[in-house]
């Protein structure tokens, strides 16, 4: 079994919406795990490893087999955010089926069926919520109509539960599977009623990751697991930042066992061969000379640039309210602080990789097959089409499960590389980045330094606020309409950016992954200077924003207040005593990002004179929770990520060369370094928003503010472990 | 290239590889046992963990030439039906996010419980800290090891 394509058995499009097709789902979804010594495996896209014959497709998302097995297509790329479980839950809820009879299948890129097949910005749930509900509800309506016709009763007398239609008055029932053939012949209703959220059976429950069985038994799921008969493995040696390829001697490499070719393109030298290890060794045998192009930078350059940009750079005004200069002149007290963060690699556990097979006609490339881990399959296809100069519809993209993404796979550079390599060697190629390639290959979280200034009047009211963001390849490093904008009468937010050869990109919660830390740590400094409780200080600001708002406010004040109060209540803010009877040092932080709200309280206790981060409480508002298990872990994982990168993450450069290349010199958080985490959700019934990112931004400040409370020391630069005098927290 | 006879998941398999090829790549490239994952290639992350004679071992730095007489178990061979107590516990606790590191985590945990069926939290942390989970599922991994321990008689 090598094919994972759908084979269409029959097209039975109805005269009505043309939506109803009958076909056989993947003929290869039951691909078995390979036994040692056997053939090589095909990727598994299906959660149940089951093929449903002669299913009836009701719409883009779902089909039902006569035996009742429901297949739900999950269009969006899965990187660990749980979309492959959450989306089908929403469809299944409105369809009203037994979750145990649902088989979830990862869809390939299909612009005709789906829109926004992309994983980024924590936006999938918000975008698709209503579409998914309608997909399920429409099919349910058709099945009920089919039953109504068969029993000659009004459809309004029918109910459904777990994939069965009931007519209670006559004590009759029919499973969906027996109705699909009839339902397929009915015209698709334009508008269908959706469930009252109070009657949800699946949504809001605890449902396990649909791929658990496949993951826990080692099935081929990920891009790096992709195999195609006759494919070659490729690796690329890329230049450091600000370097050009001068010369390459590939003689020794080419002569090594298993090596098929060495090719050069765009300052890259690529080795292709029969196995990963052979290719890796041959790449090490390349003799490459690089030359500087005059733009190389080191960390010392960046430190100097930050200072220049903050003091004299031409800043772009992002937001201006009132008269900031007058406010600072009249201030009883001024607080000023700078915060800095380094570049960070994404470090997904599965390094970049992609399979590409460019097929040639007499006039050059004609079509291309792509398969692998990408958060933006559509962009990957378009960029590949541009490279090969062929129409995008000549390119297919098979989506694999991804070993993390964190924004790195929003770029298609490695997909285009794979396609270019395949076109150069005229063979199917799986391109693999080693960990070193992944860490030194760029697309980093941008490095930023912020300068905050606050003006307080004699009563400790915040009357003026200034923020300047100085960044390397970040564009606008501020989020000018976020809190505390709206709550301060006189405010100036501007930004300066330096263009660098060190490439940057979206990194989980772009900009806010560090801005939230800096801002929420600074607010704590201001509250302390004003002699006010940090939680009350924030609540007072929000009350003010509500009573007399200044300028545009893009966050919901009441929702922000609600998470602040919930986090404070659950953590016993200001009242908690440790076993020794002393107050526990708590730090507060709250942030709105990607349409969701998260407040956190960090707790640091002194143990043997050393500060220890013992717990983080989180209160999150992402509206309706689709899956308790997934949502809870998104928050916990976001917090672990937030702690880890604030504490340890550091990518440095010398003459354009990354100084860290693997997990021996770049530190990721490990199990013994995580504190307890307690997660609470606001239950407000509002339409759901995403959770892939929003829990991360507030974490750093919950830690730094608690650490300050315990030690009196402010943590303003990340990573914390490199800050002078840092005493540790684990 | 040399011919190797390997004992993998209870079967004897023959394969050709350069002697210095890490077991990881023999499993993945030659034998199609791709459940064992590449993460760092320098034994720092644990994604490639397999059992060699029952011991949790990093296959990414283990030359194939050194394991020809050893009994090797990969995630595919940990249990016949995916029902090893550790696999069951991982499902019950719903550990995986992306899932990429979990085969290595499971193999490390299974070896730990074989050696020490009732580990303390500190012992779990000390052992499992060799395996990185970039999604941050550490709390659930710790809980799942405890659940598996309770299942282990």
TrEMBL record, chain A:
| Swiss-Prot/TrEMBL keywords | Signal
Under the GO molecular function aspect, what terms does this record hold?
oxidoreductase activity
PROSITE patterns (UniProt xref): TAT (PS51318)
Classification via SMART domains: Ald_Xan_dh_C
Q: Which residues form the signal peptide?
A: 1-30
Give all residue intervals belonging to the Aldehyde oxidase/xanthine dehydrogenase a/b hammerhead domain: 217-294
**Superkingdom of the source?**
Bacteria
Q: Which InterPro entries match?
A: Ald_Oxase/Xan_DH_a/b, AldOxase/xan_DH_MoCoBD1, AldOxase/xan_DH_MoCoBD2, AldOxase/xan_DH_Mopterin-bd_sf, N-heterocyclic_Hydroxylase, OxRdtase_Mopterin-bd_su_IorB, TAT_signal
Q: Which PANTHER family match?
A: ALDEHYDE DEHYDROGENASE, BLR6219 PROTEIN
Q: What is this protein called?
A: Isoquinoline 1-oxidoreductase
| Organism from which the protein derives | Arsenicibacter rosenii
UniProtKB/TrEMBL annotation, chain B:
Which Pfam families does the record cross-reference, listed alphabetically? Fer2, Fer2_2
Domain 2Fe-2S ferredoxin-type, residue spans: 2-78
Superkingdom as given in the UniProt entry: Bacteria
What the entry lists under Gene3D superfamilies is as follows: 3.10.20.30, [2Fe-2S]-binding domain
Q: Which UniProt keywords apply?
A: 2Fe-2S, Iron, Iron-sulfur, Metal-binding, Oxidoreductase
- Molecular function as annotated in GO: 2 iron, 2 sulfur cluster binding; metal ion binding; oxidoreductase activity
CDD domains, sorted: fer2
What is the name attached to this protein's record?
(2Fe-2S)-binding protein
Q: Which organism is it from?
A: Arsenicibacter rosenii
């Amino acid at each position: 079994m090598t094919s994972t394509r759908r084979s269409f058995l029959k097209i039975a499009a109805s005269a009505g919406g043309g939506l109803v097709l009958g076909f056989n789902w993947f003929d290869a979804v039951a691909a078995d795990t390979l036994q040692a010594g056997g053939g090589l495996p095909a990727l598994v896209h299906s959660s149940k490893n089951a093929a449903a014959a002669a299913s009836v497709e009701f719409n883009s998302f779902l089909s039902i087999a006569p035996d009742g097995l429901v297949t739900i297509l999950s269009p969006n790329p899965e990187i660990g955010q749980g979309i492959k479980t959450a989306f089908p839950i929403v469809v299944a809820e409105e369809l009203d089926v037994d979750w145990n009879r649902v088989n979830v299948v990862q869809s390939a890129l299909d612009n005709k069926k789906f829109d926004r097949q992309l994983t980024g910005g924590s936006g999938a749930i918000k975008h698709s919520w209503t579409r998914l509900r309608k997909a399920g509800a429409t099919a349910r309506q058709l099945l009920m109509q089919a039953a109504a016709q068969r029993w000659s009763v009004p459809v309004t007398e029918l109910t459904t539960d777990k994939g069965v239609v009931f007519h209670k008055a006559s004590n009759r029932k029919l499973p969906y599977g027996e109705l699909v053939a009839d339902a397929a012949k009915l015209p698709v209703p334009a508008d269908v009623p959706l469930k009252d959220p109070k009657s949800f059976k699946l949504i809001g429950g605890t449902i396990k990751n649909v791929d658990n069985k496949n993951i826990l038994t080692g099935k081929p799921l990920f891009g790096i697991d992709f195999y195609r008969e006759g494919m070659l493995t490729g690796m690329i040696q890329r230049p450091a930042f600000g370097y050009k390829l001068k010369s390459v001697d590939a003689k020794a490499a080419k002569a090594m066992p298993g090596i098929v070719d060495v090719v050069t393109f765009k300052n890259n030298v690529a080795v292709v061969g029969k196995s990963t290890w052979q290719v890796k060794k041959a790449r090490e045998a390349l003799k490459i000379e690089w030359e500087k192009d005059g733009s190389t930078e080191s960390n010392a350059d960046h430190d100097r640039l930050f200072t220049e940009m903050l003091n004299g750079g031409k800043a772009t005004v992002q937001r201006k309210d009132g008269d900031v200069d007058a406010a600072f002149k009249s201030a009883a007290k001024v607080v000023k602080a700078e915060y800095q963060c380094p570049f960070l690699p994404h470090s997904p556990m599965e390094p970049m990789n992609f399979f590409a097979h460019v097929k040639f006609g007499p006039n050059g490339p004609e079509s291309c097959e792509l398969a692998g881990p990408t958060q933006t399959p559509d962009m990957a296809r378009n960029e590949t089409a541009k490279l090969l100069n062929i129409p995008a519809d000549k390119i297919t993209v098979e989506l694999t499960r991804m070993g993390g993404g964190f924004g790195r796979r929003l770029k298609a550079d490695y997909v285009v590389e794979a396609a270019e390599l395949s076109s150069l060697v005229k063979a199917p190629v799986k391109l693999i980045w080693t960990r070193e390639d992944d860490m030194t290959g760029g697309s980093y979280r941008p490095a930023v330094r912020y300068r905050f200034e606050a003006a307080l009047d004699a009563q400790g009211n915040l009357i003026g606020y200034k923020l300047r963001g100085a960044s390397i390849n970040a564009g606008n490093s501020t989020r000018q309409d976020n809190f505390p904008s709206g709550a301060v009468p006189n405010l100036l937010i501007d930004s300066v950016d330096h263009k660098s050869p060190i490439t940057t990109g979206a990194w989980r919660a772009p900009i806010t992954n560090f801005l939230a830390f800096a801002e929420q740590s600074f607010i704590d400094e201001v509250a302390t200077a004003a002699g006010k409780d940090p939680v009350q200080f924030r609540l007072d600001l929000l009350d003010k924003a509500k009573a007399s708002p200044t300028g545009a406010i893009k966050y919901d004040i009441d929702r922000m207040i609600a998470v602040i109060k919930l986090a404070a209540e659950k953590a016993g803010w200001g009242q908690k005593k440790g076993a020794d009877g002393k107050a526990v040092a708590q730090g507060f932080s709250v942030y709105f990002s990607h349409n969701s709200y998260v407040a956190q309280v960090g707790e640091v206790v002194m143990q043997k004179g050393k500060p220890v981060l013992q717990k983080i409480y989180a209160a999150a508002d992402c509206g309706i929770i689709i899956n308790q298990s997934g949502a809870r872990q998104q928050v916990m994982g976001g917090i672990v990520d937030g702690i880890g990168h604030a504490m340890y993450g550091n990518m440095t450069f010398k003459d354009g060369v990354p100084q860290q290349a693997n997990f021996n010199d770049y530190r990721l958080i490990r199990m013994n370094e995580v504190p307890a985490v307690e997660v609470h959700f606001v239950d407000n019934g509002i339409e759901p928003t995403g959770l892939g990112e929003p829990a991360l931004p507030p974490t750093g400040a919950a830690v730094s503010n608690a650490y300050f409370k315990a030690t009196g020391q402010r943590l303003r630069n990340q990573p914390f472990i490199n800050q002078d005098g840092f005493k540790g927290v684990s | 290239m040399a011919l190797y006879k390997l004992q993998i998941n209870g079967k004897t398999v023959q394969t050709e590889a350069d002697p210095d090829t890490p077991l990881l790549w023999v499993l993945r490239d030659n034998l199609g046992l791709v459940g064992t994952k590449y993460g760092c290639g320098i034994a720092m992350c644990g994604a490639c963990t397999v059992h060699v004679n029952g011991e949790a071992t990093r296959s990414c730095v283990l030359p194939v030439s050194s394991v020809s007489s050893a009994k090797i178990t990969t995630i595919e061979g940990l249990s016949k039906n995916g029902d090893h107590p550790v696999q069951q516990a991982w499902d019950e606790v719903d550990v995986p996010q992306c899932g990429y590191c979990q085969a290595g985590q499971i193999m490390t945990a299974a070896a730990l419980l074989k050696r020490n069926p009732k580990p303390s939290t500190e012992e779990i942390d000390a052992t499992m800290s060799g395996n990185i989970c970039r999604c941050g599922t550490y709390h659930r991994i710790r809980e799942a090891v405890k659940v598996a321990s309770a299942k282990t008689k």
